[in-house]
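Question:
Now give any protein.
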Amino acid sequence: MASTTEPTTLKKEEEEEDDSRPAAEDEDTGAQVAPIVKLQEVAVTTGEENEDILIDLKSKLYRFDKDGNQWKERGVGTVKLLKHKETGKVRLVMRQNKTLKICANHLVLPTMSVQEHQGNDKSCVWHAADFSDGELKEETFCIRFASVENCRSFKDKIEEITESLAKDNKDDESGDTAASLIEKLSVKGKDLIEKLSVEGKDKEEKTEAKEEPKASSEEKKDETEKQEKSEEN
């Protein structure tokens, strides 16, 4: 029994030793192969360089198809709320994972209202004028998050922005009203000054007209006295 099993065992050990030996290293010839095409680094701009990120959450976006009367998926990716550093305008942008294709791109306006989707506390719906397809279109969106907390954070941030925008618009309207009143008062004041100036001028002309006859009567009196004296002589 020993003579029949030992060769088999040794053979297996030899095979294992052969497998465990490292393969011969490739010989280094020192030759250098130049690349066929030289690639240059290209700066890629996203259009978000002058914007601050207010929120950045992973989500799935749907668009309501009016013709088919159904929700259609727009993509899975990250939704961002971006505030422009100079103008202060806020926009909603969502890009698809991997392809980075834009599936939502619109301004957040004071009239924008985000509501919880019926029957799902992880989803929100809203209406906006979207420009993701290169033209302005009225769209109804539904977005779904991985958690209730993310959905609430998104909804609360939108409400915070719209309330701030509405307040700013109200202040601007008050400022415009005040400016309009000041302008009206300025116009009225200018008209009053012109009116007083005209009245003063008319009064002055009448006074001069009254003084002229008086002066002429005195001249006549002097001439009469001179004539009388000459006759006496």
User: Anything to note?
Assistant: The chain has two helices and seven strands. Strands lie at 51-65, 70-84, 90-96, 102-107, 115-116, 123-130, 137-145. The first strand starts at residue 51 and ends at 65.
